[in-house]
Amino acid sequence: MKYLMLVCVDPDFTPGEDDGKPDVDDWAGEMDGKGIRLMGDRTRPSSAATTVRVRNREVLVTDGPFTETKDVIAGFDVLECEDLDQAIEVASKHPMAWAGAIELRPVWPWGDE
Amino acid sequence: MSKDIAAVYADGWSRIVATMIRLTGDWSLAEECAQEAFATALRVWPESGTPDQPLAWLTTVARRTAIDRVRRAAVEREKLREVAMEPAPWTVDAEIPDDRLELMFTCCHPALNVEAQVALTLRGVAGMSTAEIARAFLVPEKTMGQRIFRAKQRIKQAGIPFRVPPGHLLPERLSAVLHVLYLLFNEGYSGAGELCREAIRIGRTLAGLMPDEPEALGLLALMLVQDARREARTGADGTLLTLDEQDRTRWDRERIDEGATLCERALRHGKAGPFQLQAAIAVCHATASGTDDTDWTQIAGLYEHLRRVAPSPVVDLNRAVAVAMASGPHAGLELVDAIDELDGYHLLHATRADLLRRAGRDDEAVDSWRRALELAPTEAERQLLSHRLAAAQRTGLRTAPPTAPQPAE
């Protein structure tokens, strides 16, 4: 199963000095090596975001993020996992699960019910 | 339902559903096929007689139904679906793998909310109908139907696996399963009794499937010992009776003995978890002939152990009660007053009131009974508490000066 892993910041949470959280490069190296992480990157902050809408056949472009995602999404990864348990394990090893939150969205392929 | 079929249903439903889920990976299809199998049995058995291997018979019918439905769906959609169907039908019950443990762990997966876990467990593992579950939780049948439907969808879409979790996940996942069972039991203890029965039945299955998990044994022991007191818990007029008011001859000795034996067996593993400790406490109470010969020092010690493995203010409160029984109301009051999280909990105030009464501070006791009465959640408890309040007020009057001082103008 494919999962989109949304790596999110949690503005209300300040982690302690040395909370033992893992290193992101180690994480990516391990998951790439196991063939679990298919792709992934950081995203630039919302100040670099652009929102596109088409209304009445007219393309409307606005500066900044779609309000609800403001400052929340810091990166994404696409995982190929056996099941949710494996995806949870992978997510729990990511440093942003320790400092922010990670949302696991199962990918819904075209053609599936 | 004929007697034979009912007997097979009690245990067979969850086994057939679990096996069909393993084979098809589709929860709704699995249930429909199990239903179809029992419906066929209802039609066929009265004429042909009950088969020698009823479970194998039912499983075979369920599998055929599944194969038919999947084929039909595949033809309709002109697309073949891969279904892991084993070719040969089972002929002997013993050869049918027992998939109920997988079913329980999937129903109680932490990615499902607790309400969904409870509903799925009752539907899948206990085989209760949606209408029965809805009645037990006092929600409309439609609401419960949606809840179960959404939970099944979620299992499929989120990719929740159908399996017993691997070793490193097992302790935390098992504790979720036990938690759901105990929740069911408690729901039944204060309301629909059938939930208690189902919780114990599932608990037995679980303990049978995981005989080396002491907490599974501990939970079963705890439920058995508590359930043994069910009949004695209420008076003739439906009021709740406290432990020392209950007629101990009405306790179910057989259940208590079974619970005590299980508890001992669990504790021998040397890994005393919260359910084993609670069971041990319940056994201490249930095997004493009265309040006076109850081993309160041991109970206080068990609570002390319990608050180390599972700290909670409710445990602190219970420990205070045991300490008060072992060492007097003042020691108990000191512990009660040190608890600062339970101001909205009626039993904190009821306990405090009782300890104040025993310490001879009746006026203060009246205030605490009042507060407990305000907070009590059920009618039975309100009745019990208003009796206590009335008694305390009478005692209070006797000890008050003959003419009460007039309030200052």
From TrEMBL, chain A:
Signal peptide start-end: none
UniProt-listed Gene3D superfamilies: Dimeric alpha+beta barrel
Domain YCII-related: start-end pairs: 1-110
InterPro entries the UniProt entry points to: Dimeric_a/b-barrel, YCII
SUPFAM superfamilies named among the record's database cross-references: Dimeric alpha+beta barrel
Highest rank taxon of the organism: Bacteria
Similarity comment text for this entry: Belongs to the YciI family.
Protein name, per record: YciI family protein
Protein source organism: Actinoplanes sichuanensis
UniProtKB/TrEMBL annotation, chain B:
Family per record: Belongs to the sigma-70 factor family. ECF subfamily.
Domain RNA polymerase sigma-70 region residue range list: 16-73
Residues in RNA polymerase sigma factor 70 region 4 type domain copies: 104-155
Keyword Iron-sulfur attached: no
Designated name of the protein: RNA polymerase sigma factor
PROSITE patterns assigned to the protein according to its UniProt record, in alphabetical order: TPR
Alphabetic keyword roster: Sigma factor, TPR repeat, Transcription, Transcription regulation
